[in-house]
Specification:
The protein has three helices and five strands; from the N terminus they run ααβββββα. The longest helix has 20 residues. The chain is extended, with a radius of gyration of 19 Å. The chain has a single domain, classed as HU Protein, Chain A (Irregular). A hairpin with a 3-residue loop joins strand 1 and strand 2. The strands form two sheets. It has a three-stranded antiparallel sheet. It has a two-stranded antiparallel ribbon with strand order 3-4. With 101 residues, the chain is an alpha+beta fold. The termini are close together.
Length: 101
């Protein structure tokens, strides 16, 4: 069964319990890692975490879309940057073993 979500708080609690480090210290470290990833992406860098995956910026071109509430009215969707994630080899192998119910 696949759990619905994992939050930053869950990560902090798990790491804190496993390492014997205080929640506050782990929260500072986790937030520091996330801030570092965000800054790298903001600066156009690719973030590669071995055995986990790669985060990279992808530019979506401007396009014409449809408003679901008024499908007859086209809307302009602007060019925008989005984050793309590609799972690493180890993660892909582990995901293949997931059982779906």
């Amino acid at each position: 069964m696949i759990a619905s979500k994992l939050t930053k708080k869950d990560i902090v609690q798990t790491v804190s319990a496993g390492s014997g480090t205080s929640h506050a210290d782990v929260m500072v470290l986790v937030q520091g890692v996330l801030d570092c990833i965000i800054r790298a992406l903001e600066n156009g860098k690719t973030v590669e975490l071995r055995n986990f995956g790669v985060f990279e910026i992808q530019i979506r071109q401007a396009r014409i879309g449809r408003n679901p509430n008024k499908p007859s009215v086209p809307i302009q969707i602007p060019k925008q940057a989005v984050v793309k994630f590609k799972a690493g080899k180890s993660l892909r192998e582990k995901l293949k073993k997931i059982r779906y119910s």
